Amino acid sequence: MASVPIRHAVCSRCSISIAVASSSRIAAISRPSRVTKRYNSTSHGSLPRFQPRLDGLEPHHGPRAKPSHHVGSLSRSQAGKTVILGGWLFAARRASANLHFFTLRDSSGTVQLISRDPVISERLMKFPLESVIQVEGEVLERKEKAKVEDSQLKPADQVEIQLSNVLLLNAAEANLPFYPNRPELANEDLRAQYRYLDLRRTELSDNLKIRSKVMHITRCHLHDKGFTEVETPILLNSSPEGAREFLVPTRVSTSSTSSSPPSPAFYALQQSPQQPKQLLIASGAIPRYYQIARCFRDEDGRKDRQPEFTQIDLEMAFVSGTAPVVDERAAQQSTWNIGGSEVRDVVEGLVKDIWKEIKGIELKTPFNVMPYEVAMDVYGSDKPDTRFEMYTLPIGYFPTLTEDTLDRILLDERLYTVEWMVTPAHLAKHIDPRQLLANNHFVHCIPITESNMMTWPAESPFTNNLELEIDPELINHARGGVQPGDLLWLAQRKKIPEGGWTNLGRFRVELAEYLVGAGHLVLPPEPRFLWITGFPLFTRADEDKAFLSKGRWASTHHPFTAPVYEDLEQLKKGQVEGVRGQHYDLVLNGQEIGGGSVRIHDADLQEHIMKEILQLDEKEVSRFAHLIQALKFGAPPHGGLAIGLDRLVSILCDSKSIRQVIAFPKTAGGSDPVFKSPSSATVDVLKGYGLRPLTEDSEVEKKD
Amino acid sequence: MASVPIRHAVCSRCSISIAVASSSRIAAISRPSRVTKRYNSTSHGSLPRFQPRLDGLEPHHGPRAKPSHHVGSLSRSQAGKTVILGGWLFAARRASANLHFFTLRDSSGTVQLISRDPVISERLMKFPLESVIQVEGEVLERKEKAKVEDSQLKPADQVEIQLSNVLLLNAAEANLPFYPNRPELANEDLRAQYRYLDLRRTELSDNLKIRSKVMHITRCHLHDKGFTEVETPILLNSSPEGAREFLVPTRVSTSSTSSSPPSPAFYALQQSPQQPKQLLIASGAIPRYYQIARCFRDEDGRKDRQPEFTQIDLEMAFVSGTAPVVDERAAQQSTWNIGGSEVRDVVEGLVKDIWKEIKGIELKTPFNVMPYEVAMDVYGSDKPDTRFEMYTLPIGYFPTLTEDTLDRILLDERLYTVEWMVTPAHLAKHIDPRQLLANNHFVHCIPITESNMMTWPAESPFTNNLELEIDPELINHARGGVQPGDLLWLAQRKKIPEGGWTNLGRFRVELAEYLVGAGHLVLPPEPRFLWITGFPLFTRADEDKAFLSKGRWASTHHPFTAPVYEDLEQLKKGQVEGVRGQHYDLVLNGQEIGGGSVRIHDADLQEHIMKEILQLDEKEVSRFAHLIQALKFGAPPHGGLAIGLDRLVSILCDSKSIRQVIAFPKTAGGSDPVFKSPSSATVDVLKGYGLRPLTEDSEVEKKD
């Protein structure tokens, strides 16, 4: 390296060799004296003085010792030692003139402080609760069991601290809007407004810690499995699916002439990294991608949804496109009769890790697999809650009705059938059907008695005008359909299952919620994981997509999902109804926590589906141009999945709402009670984006 | 658990007990036969048929074996074994009628394939290069050293694969816009447009893998140190600092009457998690927070900046607010004379980990510390590049001028002084000052000769009208200021350093870049880390903030930075000039890679600074209401730091631009060549947000 010979005095004070060798020498020449001289030589007018508070509760700013322990790390073993703790003054009480008890809380727990020093006691008694203090004292082993001030907290009650010193680091206000760690909770709005106080509540802070753990377990697991974490753009372009996307105006102008007022230009916030991650895998840059990605959807206040949410998102190259030729686990896996088993294996391993480390539960893998059609037939739902029985079955299965009569009782021979469900007597006796069905015009209930055991169809609005062929066989043995005291529920449903629910499927869940709430039904504690596969690839039933499909076929999930190999020829013939997709949903306790699919890697097939089946116009197709192009550059077969982290964690935390596992959630209405968003913008600001309010008179905040 | 007695035939086919025990039984009742029947019973018209391609290059959809190895995992040890590989056809050549050589590439490397089977050879020769194939063959140990087709690639050249089978998984187009892994690079625009092809280039994919590693090392390190990862809102409210923030209009209406057209409401994308993370720490929920956070700034095309970028963001509770009383490392640490040493320790440990695992370099910690004022005096920069010498010094230090004469040569006794820098003869001989200063009117150059060694000040525009008091002492010994052949550079600078550069400091870097580029100066390979502390807490010099401060004082960094303890009294007196902040920047090789500070935890002081010193009006202060409120609820002292991940990784990857370490970067102009953002929106869409284009005639795209 070229070097400058050090020749003059000054450089001996700041030469780099010295600067590197001992920065203290460098420090020497900062000379506060000279600084002061410099500043005094200038003559800016000085500003108002600071008004100190007079209540003797100024926060400590000066030097102080560093805390030696967390409360959680205290135990008998330190008895006799002197420790320094920082935390919140949680409770204070006077036992006698010269004996006071206090409770110190930090995020790891609480510990009792005792003071026999009247000066320290007096000071501490003056501090408002929830003030931040630093205390020094001797660790004493605790004789008597501690009285726990707060049922929510588990104090390190083996020891107490005999105070020798206390510092007020920061006083709390004398009267807080509420006190977070007391049993009685303040009302929700107040807690939402002061979230940064509510977060002090142990239950919430524990949720955040569990969430952090889950993310770390996930990342370690996926790194071990050879995944690469890649950040994809959050600022994307708007897409045809973008019904609920957020637009982001930018000052960057699309008009070439920047002299004229710019025509507004927008990014869109990603709703999921679907396209970027497929491009990434198609590029061949990395064989296995993952990301814990923030996604955005302008849900406009759907129940328990957030405008921003988090996905564990992954994608793998070279996944199998159909059931593998060599299948080591044929026995168990026989129902995973689609491709992407590599994704299944990774996800099951990940979920296993999470449940083991967070819950201490060893999950049995592989998880069960159920075809969509079966789920709809047996549970009337594409996310069956298998923790309780009672099945919703097409009437054709009803043993007292022979196959022949089935067609005759269909309301519409082409489209409709009847589904039925039995609630057995021991549960039925707790149920008042009239009450439960008060607002439900789809489900019909027939209480079963000795007299109508075999004739009930005559009471069914769906089946009453039939003379039934009773099969004596079935009546005579105990396996007959229903028994006195049962409740028989009937509803109409589409013959070919469609969408996520049947009428009875929805009611089945409401009924279970009622029975659980009333304590008549107890759900098993262990989680019930289930894969649902074989969804129809196309649908006409999804309202969310109606605006797009305009009565045409829409993709049940997204247009990149590959068809089931066995249905490929049928699809190519143009008979799309009944074509199943290589899509898989991961269901836990009746909630969908993840979903994914094997993707189409064949550019011609992808274009065929977009143009001929979805009948997207040129402009709509052009939004996918980069993806189709990427497939033409030599893209490997690939597939992936995304798990909803908020939902997953809220289940792990037994939280009712995902808001309890998010640090600063927004309300159902999408507003932020802490940061007060969204808010208005000035006309001037909007002008910068080439925008103006629709109505000039709309209350647009004027800045001074 | 309540259970339903199984009574009828059908349930033996789908009872949950069975469903759970063996899902294969459940699968049985999906009955493809019945499905077909169902669909046949419906009569939707069928759609156009798929037109198969006729060139015999259809992608394989059917069953196939799973790949057994990655190319990177091949070695002599597998010789004789049969392996299955998936990857890209990278090269093909005919050696003789019955001997062909091919190269297979996957993201882990390349391997040679040989075919002696004319059928396989013919097929492979037909496949376009970059097609995705799956091959099966025997591993042969390689006799002769392989000719490496591409200097960029290191093939697993111990072995080659003798082909027994080949599958075309996906054909590439016959002519790609460019071929990523060839030495000659296509032009940048083309590569940007087809980023998903360019990413196939090993150099880029390696960058992504290094980035992923750095993130994982970071997370593991911080988790080990007891940090909790917390996701803070990306959709925040706009803030006074928000000159460059992105607004996000939302359909959520702020007007109570939703009948009238909604008045526009906006979120703002976070520029950094500064406020959320301070609220989090203030809440006491967690003692140590971190997040690898996506941040957003509407930079409007600044060089090598991205509208979205990533920060390693952390914050710690109970950090010391001034040099700790007990300092185990007093010797080295003596110049860290502010608080927050806990943050310093964590960050240095983290950086040490990263350099060790990525570069195999053991960094010496603690890093050096240099006060801002010294950096500005000695290097003319607040991010000194200490890899080369040459110092920019206030003329006062010039030994041939005594302190007394110093004041007389100041251009403006109050504000200005002169800085000077010497380039020694052995470097000077490579420099043409006229050329280097062609567009630089701030720096003046005096070539030193025997004759003007002591009289040069007479040639300086800044000092020429002075009779100088030459100190014979200094002249006579070798430590005199300059020597013949040196180049002496002079420039004017503020007496009290301000902002990030002096004129000479900026020139110093340009000069070094020129010398390095021309090969006359060689920079040392090992990284030079440096902490800069003691920045002025307030400034009038920051243009970025001028719009806010309107000539008033502005915070040099942000209004939450705590003053240096020793300067607190001065600040309270209202003499803010010269008050230093407890801010620290981490500098690497002349680039700022991170910065942070100890925060103000005293609500009164925070309010005093905002109202009395920054003179924010009520409305501006109200934007910080939640933060001030949080401090009043009992907030612990806290401090933190943020590291720019993109910059850090690009330095680790020796990349010129951060775009080379981002999967899908945007152009300098902020547009996305792949996803074609930003783009226009229809009037109807804008209406949904209560917005319309400023100029009706601005080309707003009309949807059909």
UniProtKB/TrEMBL annotation, chains A, B:
The record's InterPro entries line, in alphabetical order, gives: Aa-tRNA-synt_II (IPR004364), aa-tRNA-synth_II (IPR006195), aa-tRNA-synth_II/BPL/LPL (IPR045864), Asp-tRNA-ligase_1 (IPR004524), Asp-tRNA-ligase_1_N (IPR047089), Asp/Asn-tRNA-synth_IIb (IPR002312), GAD-like_sf (IPR004115), NA-bd_OB-fold (IPR012340)
The domain of life is Eukaryota
Q: Which UniProt keywords apply?
A: Aminoacyl-tRNA synthetase, ATP-binding, Ligase, Nucleotide-binding, Protein biosynthesis
Location of the Aminoacyl-transfer RNA synthetases class-II family profile domain: 208-665
Name any one Pfam family assigned in the record. tRNA_anti-codon
What GO CC terms are in its UniProt record? Answer: mitochondrion
Record-level Gene Ontology MF annotations: aspartate-tRNA ligase activity; ATP binding; nucleic acid binding
Identify the Gene3D superfamilies for this entry.
Bira Bifunctional Protein, Domain 2 (3.30.930.10), GAD-like domain (3.30.1360.30), Nucleic acid-binding proteins (2.40.50.140)
**Annotated coiled-coil segments of the chain:** none
Q: Where is this region: Disordered?
A: 37-73
Record's NCBIfam families? aspS_bact, PRK00476.1
Q: What is this protein called?
A: Aminoacyl-transfer RNA synthetases class-II family profile domain-containing protein
Q: Supply the source organism for this entry.
A: Naematelia encephala
Organismal lineage: Eukaryota, Fungi, Dikarya, Basidiomycota, Agaricomycotina
